[in-house]
Write a structure and sequence with these properties.
Layout (H helix, E strand, L loop, with lengths): L5 H8 L6 H8 L7 H25 L2 H4 L3 H19 L1
Helix pairs in contact: 3-5
């Protein structure tokens, strides 16, 4: 049986940014927003996106990669998490 953390569950549930209340509850219920914890979450998610991008790209030819929807989605998620980590 695979167990997911609260943060992983949020990542699976929402395509974009999860609601702030749900994110704070997953981080540990910190009221007022712990900027360091939020930045760490985004850095971790960006790392997972980079790993996913490299694995997916390694399995595809150059022609297949040019129109691959998963690569586009992972690239967009990586850009979003990088920007969010810097903004936190």
């Amino acid at each position: 049986m695979v167990r997911m953390t609260a943060l992983e569950a949020l990542e699976w549930r929402y395509d974009g940014a999860p609601p702030a209340g749900a994110l704070m509850a997953a981080v540990g219920g910190r009221i007022g927003g712990d900027a360091v914890a939020v930045a760490a979450i985004h850095q971790h998610e960006a790392h997972l996106c980079r790993v996913g991008l490299s694995r997916r790209r390694g399995r595809l030819s150059a022609l297949q990669a040019s129109g691959d929807a998963w690569l586009l989605r992972l690239g967009a998620a990586l850009a979003w998490h990088r920007a969010a980590a810097l903004a936190a």
